[in-house]
Amino acid sequence: MLQSKNDELAERNLYITDSIRYAQKIQSAILPDPKMLEKNIKDGDLIFKPKDIVSGDFFWCAEVDGMIFVAVIDCTGHGVPGAFMSMIGNTLLNDIVKVKKVSDPGQILNLLDQGIILELNKEENQDTIDGMDIALCVIDRGNAKLNFAGAYRPLFHFNKGELTEIKGTKKSIGDRKRQLDFATASIDIDSSSVIYLFTDGLADQNNIEGEKFGVQKLRDFIKENATLPVTEQKELLTDRINNFMLNEVQRDDITVAIFKPF
Question: I need a labelling partner for 135 at 20 to 30 A (CA). Which of 85, 125, 170, 261 fits?
Answer without folding.
Answer: 125
